[in-house]
Amino acid sequence: MFERFTAGARAAVTVHAPTEARRRGDRRVGTEHLLLGVLHDVEAAQTLGVDIETARSALAALDEAALAAIGIDARGVERATITESSTRLPFTSGAKATLSRALAVARRTGARRIAVVHLLAGLLDGDRTDPATNVLAEVGVDRVAVRARVVP
């Protein structure tokens, strides 16, 4: 399924994103996990101007704010992690849409393989309700400006 991906993009999607999901105790790989997976790539992190720890902290803050909005105080509560398992975590519909957008960008630019830069473009093109979009906004990334630099 991921044979059209470069080694870096394949690692971001099939290794790092599921690891990030398990680390957070999530049972599905969402766009927020894809973003964290992409941030394992040093060049992508530099392009966004965000390191992985900052993005993880922003995601945790967004989680706490969402829980607080419904009356749950989760400050100081540690999330359970899911231990490594041989079963693959399924992708959310948002994550699948991000991968489709990355493929479309790769095709539009004439690339033969989907690279990390295409994944990044797919993440930057998410709608405002997308978890990765919320993380990017939380850390102050100007998605339009970065998208223009990433894929002209």
From TrEMBL:
Pfam families in UniProt: Clp_N
UniProt keywords, alphabetically: Hydrolase, Protease, Repeat
Keyword Hydrolase: yes
Span of domain Clp R: 2-152
Domain of life from the UniProt record: Bacteria
PROSITE patterns associated with the record: CLP_R
Name this protein carries in UniProt: Clp protease
Organism (species): Micromonospora globbae
